[in-house]
Write a structure and sequence with these properties.
Length: about 525
């Protein structure tokens, strides 16, 4: 945490006004270095600092116009948490905070309908505790014990923990794995009505006690299950949600070079109320799950299992002409449902071509990286850039040498920030220089044009080329057309917006918005005043 303070100037130079710190509360060393098995909601991991260090950092961030976000792991605690230790020792009140059973009768009934989150690395939803001869629900990992929110004491105490974090200066509470927090026999124990009631209660309390705090829901599921977490005008829930489907559809488009699914996804987003605020991103700390609209893809004879295999093969370099360099996470060959890991730069080809010394390939990959960020920045909502993407940081394979991390391929893209490369951002002809200044340029454009406001109208338009996506943003002052080429060939976007001359905000060149020639993996941000 003190190190973040020392690097705050760099963070400001990145244009950041919203800093999402990964889980930093006390958790068992060696079993959960990711921080999602919280052993104490009131203590920071000793190797990272103290609660006072956290308060000092958030205060400094606020002075510099930066809001702070932190994960609130609410589905479970670590087995090392005081509640869990007391439960293990036989305390009935503590056991009532979890799902404890004397035998496998009820757990086996749960297993009939409750899907497994990690079927290969952590199969099943329960763990048998030999020392106390009990089974406990562990949806994610055996060392993460699910909390029983049917016990009102759990809700009260967890809410108290959340408010403790807000008093430490946290402005955005990320509700981790929120769809899982209510369990019920005979159901999938996902997205149940009681979950929404609990989130509404958290929203009500936060608006009364700390109205400046926002709730961000982590709902990594298909759109039909994501949107309800916004709630309604009468019963609001989360202030913000992740635009996970657009993220996954974007990477699908990179592999298939077909924008059909992405265009459909954008059309669905465009039809939503403008009050719905999404966090848009290309990459994050987690894996990429292929939660695509397979009902739509079936219309094109695309089978879910074989398509997921194609996507994973593409991005792990299984084909001779593919540029992605990623690794699989939680691979289950039987279901063909592996997820994908890797940094944006490595998945775009910067790692492959850099390793080969292919200067032309690196330049094209950098252009693609910029184009993908340009697409992300032109969506409505809040753009989030994962640390390291601004300098094109590639995969970090050193995690394989750490026995505590080697089993989790997500550490491939969770590598330490490479500070030795950061100074290269000031050298124009380096990968770091090209990416950093391109993203900085795009961010300044975005902040200086009202047409990027969430209040602007947003729609897609046909380009008559399956590899090119075009979106239109429009308000009373400006009209913007973003054009993105997902092909490795120069193409023509056959749009025909016959309403005068536009300026490409990126290059400054003027052109008509019809029959636009666009380079391979390139983009244009066309704009005109009304």
């Amino acid at each position: 945490l003190k190190g973040v303070e020392e690097k705050l100037d760099y963070i400001k130079k990145c244009g950041v006004n919203y800093l999402h710190m990964m889980p930093l509360l006390e958790s068992p060393k060696g079993r959960d270095d990711g921080g999602y098995a919280v052993a104490d909601f009131r203590k920071v991991k000793p190797e990272l600092g103290t609660i006072q260090d956290l308060k000092d950092l958030t205060e400094l961030c606020h002075k510099n116009g930066i809001s702070c976000c932190l994960d609130f792991v609410m589905n479970h605690t670590s087995e090392d948490h005081a509640w869990a230790k007391a439960a293990r020792a036989g305390d009935p009140q503590a056991r009532s905070r979890y799902y404890f059973y004397d035998n496998w009768d009820i757990p086996n009934e749960y297993e009939k309908t409750t899907p497994q989150v990690f079927p290969t690395t952590a199969p099943g939803n329960f763990t048998w505790l030999d020392d106390c001869k009990q089974a406990v629900m562990t949806t994610f990992y055996p060392y993460q014990w699910d909390l029983n929110y049917a016990n009102c004491i759990v809700f009260n105490d967890m809410l108290d923990n959340m408010l403790f974090l807000t008093n430490c200066g946290i402005d955005v509470i990320r509700l981790d794995a929120v769809p899982y927090i209510w369990k019920e026999l005979g159901t999938k124990s996902r997205n149940l009505p009681q979950v929404h009631t609990l989130v509404r209660m958290m929203r009500l309390v936060s608006e009364i006690v700390c109205p400046g705090v926002l709730l961000l829901g982590e709902v990594v599921m298909e759109p039909a299950k994501v949107l309800p977490y916004f709630g309604s005008v009468e019963k609001p829930e989360c202030h913000m949600l992740y635009n996970v489907t657009t993220m996954a559809s974007t990477w699908n488009t990179i592999a298939t070079r077909d924008v059909g699914l992405l265009k459909r996804q954008m059309d669905q987003v465009c039809a939503l109320p403008k009050e719905y605020v999404f966090l848009n991103y290309l990459r994050c700390h987690d894996d990429i799950g292929w939660g695509l609209d397979y009902d739509f893809l079936k219309n094109f004879s695309i089978d879910e299992v074989s398509h997921k295999k194609f996507l994973n093969d593409f991005f792990t370099g299984k084909y001779p002409d593919t540029f992605g360099r990623g690794e699989l996470y939680n691979d289950d060959p039987r279901l063909g449902d592996a997820r994908l890991c890797g940094t944006t730069a490595s998945l775009c080809g910067i790692e492959k071509y850099g390793f080969e010394g292919n200067v032309v390939g690196v330049d094209r990959s950098v252009r693609y990286d910029i184009t993908l960020h340009a697409f992300m920045l032109s969506q409505s909502g809040i753009p989030v850039i994962y640390s390291g993407d601004e300098i094109g940081q590639v995969n970090d394979y050193s995690y394989k040498d750490d026995p505590d991390k080697a089993v989790d391929s997500r550490y491939l893209h969770r590598g330490e920030f490479n500070w030795s490369l950061a100074p290269n951002r000031n050298i124009a002809d380096t990968v770091q220089g090209k990416l950093f200044h391109a993203l900085d340029h795009l961010e300044h454009i975005r902040s200086s044009h009202s047409v990027f406001d969430t209040t602007a109208d947003l729609r897609t338009i046909d380009t008559w080329d399956s590899s090119i996506l075009a979106i239109v943003r429009e308000n009373a002052e400006e009209k913007f057309i973003g054009i993105y080429n997902f092909s490795d060939q120069d193409k023509v976007a056959w749009i025909n917006e016959d309403d005068g001359i536009y300026t490409d905000l990126i290059s400054g060149h003027e052109m008509e918005a019809k029959g636009v020639m666009i380079p391979a993996f390139g983009c244009f941000w066309l704009c005109k005043k009304k």
